[in-house]
Amino acid sequence: MKGKYPTEAFALGMILFSAGLKEAFAAGSLMILTAVFAEFLKNLLKPLVPAWSSALCAALAAGSLCASAFLLGFWALGIEMDAGTWSMTFLLGLLAARHVLRAELQAEYGELLWECAVFWGFWVLLAAVREFLATGAVFGSFIVRGSYQSKGFLDPAFGLLGTGLALAFTNGLLKKRGPDAESLLLALPLIIFARPLEMVSLGPLAGLLWTILAPAALFVSCRQTLKFSRTSSSFRGLPTELLTLGFIYMILGLY
């Protein structure tokens, strides 16, 4: 049985907002709000307007709500968010709407909330671990300083690795396969937004294209190979692909 939670939206949200417990807690709650709102609006408009119109309205409304909620919520919590990150929150809303429009959830809000909450729990837990390993603090409160701690844990590579594990743990706990997800919808915007390497020597334009096309080509190649790999049902699909992208980020970050 497939899960009902919006995998793509939650995965991208965790990649972007899992460097600390505070932002993970806030982002997860806002993502749940967006997913439920998108499902509610879809069911509200479906009998009233044509299918294409209800889908378009649900997508735009979910994207707008998500971006607005993140902006206000993070401002209220004193969490800084630049313009680029804020623009990505609109994409989170679009991905949540895409899921509810394709999944035919039949207004099963209880099951949707339960599955979202399970993933959110792993999101918060791994964000706390990541924050502690990077800064020695949890929820902004300093605990201890150790030689094993490094700011490198705040890099996108560890966000990708943590997200892949969170998806796999969620699938395993729910004993369900993850919903059908298109990893390129996450990978390509992420590679453009947070490029894993810089190539200043090639010039501005050529360097920009290289730092986008090279990681994208590597990911697509690995993604094709993974189709023939034998993995457990919990890791199959998006979790393994995100773990792969995380290792690509880690390797390219050395250069």
TrEMBL record:
Sorted UniProt keywords: Membrane, Transmembrane, Transmembrane helix
Keyword Membrane applies: yes
Spans through the membrane: 24-41, 53-77, 113-133, 153-174, 203-222, 234-252
Identification of the protein by name: Uncharacterized protein
